[in-house]
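Put briefly, the fold is written as integer tokens. One such record reads:
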Amino acid sequence: MKVSTIVLNFNLAADTISVVADLKKQTVKPEIIVVDNGSTDDSIKLINASHPDVKVISLPKNLGVAGGYNAGIKYAMQCHPELVSGSHYICVLNNDLIIDQKDCLEILIDSGLRRNDIGVVGPLIYFAKGYEYRSLDAKAAGHIVWYAGGIIDWDNMYHSHVGVDHAFAKASAGKPRETDFITGAFMLFKKEVFGKIGLFNEKYALYLEDAEICERAKRAGYKLLFVPEARIEHKVSQTSGNAIGSGLNDYYLTRNRLLFGLQFAPLRTKFALLREATKLLFTGRNNQKKGVLDFFTCNFGKTL
């Protein structure tokens, strides 16, 4: 068995150094690959100094989440062609995570990926203490759910997290269960999934790139499994300008929601999305307008 972990870095070397140290403590010892997504600071130097045994792939420019993950996946698959699909797992993860649970990877593999019908699994994710969306009682900090499974509202074309903003919601407890999508903050794949459906769609760059590859996996016959026994923490929205309500958020969610919906949604929802897009051209915020225009002119990928 081989587990290749791909950590994405952009100008946040301290976070990357920390999560790599967490990965090294896992009971299942993974191969660790860091993809530096065109950092403009001294990230590569700092990461190499702290973890000289870790492979660092340096990209000349920021290719977005999808492009960065793809660079690491391609490297992992090319380096281990001798491994049959069933013995090679590939994990992609953000660098702003805390993985204190030392058997997290082991639980995810044993609870889900041993099954033939499961293609992708993900853990329960809490907000890291101090990174919650709202002010909380001090006792609740560090125990607030960020992701306990994903839901797609096909009528309105919205993606949401189960249990978000609740203190260990009931939805986060219990046995592993199927879910609509696994969050791109931490996704563990069977290698064979990429061989069957391809890699992340780089048209998306960031936002909904996770839902898109999950949807393709489901339509290829794989199930997605949320495993609440495996738990990590997330320092949410550490990337500059990437917070909810920011220009990046406005642009990519507007453009990629149209891209996802026009590819996968029912016909009625597609018509509703097109009406909504037309309205946004006149009434939306500037980056929403740009997102709609870029969708209609097929200007995809990392554009901001």
